């Protein structure tokens, strides 16, 4: 990418049939619906895509289908996280070969008790950077149980050619974003936040240039970023305030199930199935989600009707 990627980069959910099989046609419809929300890029095979519940074969199929179907309409970011460096390198090569614009990866971890030291983490990212020619986004999230210090992140940005984007989604993310941007300077090409934009205003104040949310209400969250970047911070705050009830309900009550529930209701996909051991959301939580989605008149809630 010649121009740094900014804006809203949502994670696409992976649709399944009611019996748990991957819904390939549904995947295509999910991508079309998200593009129609006016996004700047799409991320696939992330944690909110249930990547940890996909077989290697399913993962390869979904990557091929997604990149072929999007066909350059927006950049596609492929998540390649795995504990084994060799597998991450092969996933990165495959993603680039199929046309991915970027890869995203977490540090290697297998539960909080099995995390390599900083040297191993650096070498993990170094191996991928050496193997591909597209940008790498570092996903810094509490899920890994891995503490990525600002000095380590800055070192990777300075020394590893393709490590230039960072998704920060931890408590006090704004402070870490600000410290990263100050220490890394021009090497920090794309500082992003996550967690459904729950802290987006503070993170924009800290210098982030976009967010990676779910695919639920991208058309509304995108307005926040565009308003802020245009210098209209009052409009950004007003829009963020409008989005907050749904942001909060998704982030704290629904998790990755929210987009699938709304997309099923909106005729985008035929099932909101999540794979075991995940469980469907309660009727109470679902009812509140659909009420809030209706109040926001979401594209996803009417796209397939």
TrEMBL record:
SUPFAM superfamilies: Aldolase
The enzyme's E.C. designation: 4.2.1.43
Keywords of this entry: Lyase
GO molecular function: 2-dehydro-3-deoxy-L-arabinonate dehydratase activity; 4-hydroxy-tetrahydrodipicolinate synthase activity
Family matches, as Pfam families: DHDPS
UniProt keyword Lyase present: yes
InterPro entries for the chain: Aldolase_TIM, DapA-like
One Gene Ontology cellular component annotation held by this UniProt entry: cytosol
Protein family membership: Belongs to the DapA family.
Protein name: L-2-keto-3-deoxyarabonate dehydratase
Origin organism lineage: Bacteria, Pseudomonadati, Pseudomonadota, Alphaproteobacteria, Rhodobacterales
């Amino acid at each position: 990418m010649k121009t740094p990627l900014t804006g809203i980069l949502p994670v696409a959910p992976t649709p399944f049939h009611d019996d748990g099989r991957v819904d390939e046609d549904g995947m295509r419809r999910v991508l079309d619906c998200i593009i129609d929300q006016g996004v700047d890029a799409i991320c696939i095979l992330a944690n909110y895509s249930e990547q940890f519940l996909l077989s290697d074969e399913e993962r390869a199929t979904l990557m091929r289908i997604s990149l072929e179907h999007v066909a350059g309409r927006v950049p596609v970011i492929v998540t390649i996280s795995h504990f084994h460096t060799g597998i991450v390198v092969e996933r990165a090569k495959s993603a680039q070969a199929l046309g991915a614009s970027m890869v995203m990866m977490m540090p290697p971890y297998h539960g909080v008790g099995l995390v390599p030291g900083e040297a191993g983490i650096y070498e993990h990212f170094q191996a991928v950077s050496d193997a591909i020619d597209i940008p790498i986004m570092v996903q810094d999230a509490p899920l890994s149980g891995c503490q990525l210090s600002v000095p380590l992140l800055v070192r990777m940005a300075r020394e590893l050619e393709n490590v230039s984007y960072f998704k920060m989604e931890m408590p006090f993310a704004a402070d870490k974003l600000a410290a990263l941007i100050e220490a890394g300077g021009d090497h920090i090409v794309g500082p992003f936040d996550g967690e459904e934009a729950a802290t987006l205003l503070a993170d924009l104040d800290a210098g982030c240039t976009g967010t990676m949310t779910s695919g639920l209400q991208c058309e509304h969250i995108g307005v926040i970023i565009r308003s802020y970047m245009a210098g209209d911070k009052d409009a950004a705050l007003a829009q963020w305030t409008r989005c907050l009830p749904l942001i909060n309900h998704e982030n704290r009550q629904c998790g990755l199930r929210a987009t699938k529930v709304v997309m099923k209701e909106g005729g985008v996909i035929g099932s909101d199935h999540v794979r075991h051991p995940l469980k469907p959301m309660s009727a109470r939580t679902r009812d509140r989600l659909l009420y809030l989605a209706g109040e926001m008149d979401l594209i996803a809630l009417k796209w397939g009707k």
